[in-house]
Amino acid sequence: MGKLIAVTMGDPAGVGGEVTLKALASFAKAEASRYVIVGDFDYLVQMAKLFRIKISLTQIQKAEDARFLKGQVGVLDLGGAEKVEMGKVSAACGTAAVDYIYEASKLALAGKVKAIVTAPINKEAIHKAGCVFPGHTELLAHLSKTKTFAMMMVGGPYKIVLQSIHVALKDSVRYVTPTLVAEKLELTQKSLRQWFGIKQPRIAVAGVNPHAGENGAFGKEEIKILKPVIAKFQRKGWKVSGPHPPDTLYYWAAAGMYDAVLCMNHDQGLIPFKLVAFENGVNMTLGLPYVRTSPDHGTAFDIAGKGIARPQSMIAALKLADKLV
Which end of the chain is more exposed for a tag (fewer CB within 10 A), N or C? Predict the structure, then answer.
């Protein structure tokens, strides 16, 4: 038995349980047994029957018990919401989703699993449950006492790192400071070497403004902040370039000119990414002391409970976690 990987079930009212079961059912049985679902055993059994997903689930008391399973997927049963209305936001489902994350984090920090794959949660639901964090990334960083972290989107030709994540666009520029940009570049460089085996990563930095500011005509961030930081790393011998005009950068990145792109705000990176990797994109958290991946979609409340959710992104997230560990 190889290294174990925990999979959190996500919000019970969303598609997390469905895509997790469908994804694991697509694997060879011996391969699927390496994954431990942290969630609600009765709910998952019911879901498998309802959607006729051919998978053998076994309730386990502790994650290590999964090592002795053959052809079965272990479920570390934490229970769930007493009543689940598919596609509906509720504090009870938010509480369950957060409980699964806490347990998976404990397992990873104790070394009992080598990676976490997280099914989608609903931000409104976890806030109703009293969780103050915007999402998985910030919560997992808090639980592991990780100070410097970043979201990397992996899929198609892209590895895209976000300078700011879930903040209003007008506030995102506040995250473009010499210190914070340098932190993200250092983390990107380290992660590409550590996890992807790229000895001298080629990292492109996107500009903040249209045309990367056009020599200061459309903004000064490129001149005052980005260029000096990039120059500092270039003097160290790093293959960092930019700031590049965002409207052309992703074309060249897709052509293979760069190993990763550091973009300046959420949509600047996510729009081109989802254009080419909507079905099989993966969200990876950099900086944690363990591997964490997630499908690049939400709880999909509009189709939850209908049995039509597609598992491609979850399959990609599971496979990337396995490859990295």
Answer: N
The full length of the chain comes to: 325
Specify if 214 maps to a domain: yes
Tokens of 132: 């103050």
CATH assignment at residue 66: 3.40.718.10
What are the pLDDT digits (tens) for 201-227? 999 999 999 898 788 888 899 899 999
Indicate the burial class of 73 (C-beta count within 10 angstroms; 0-12, 13-18, 19 or more).
Answer: buried
Same domain, 268 and 306: no
Domain assignment of residue 257, given as a range = 150-273
Q: What pLDDT score does 219 carry? A: 87
Domain count, the chain: 2
Peptide bond into 210 cis (omega under 30): no
Same domain, 313 and 254: no
- Where b means 16+ CB within 10 Å and e means fewer, 33-45 reads bbbbbbbbbebbe
Say what the pTM is: 0.91
Q: Are residues 59 and 124 in the same domain?
A: yes
Residues 249 and 221 in one domain: yes
Burial class (CB in 10 A: 0-12, 13-18, 19+), 190: middle
Helix count and strand count (H, E) for the chain: 13, 12
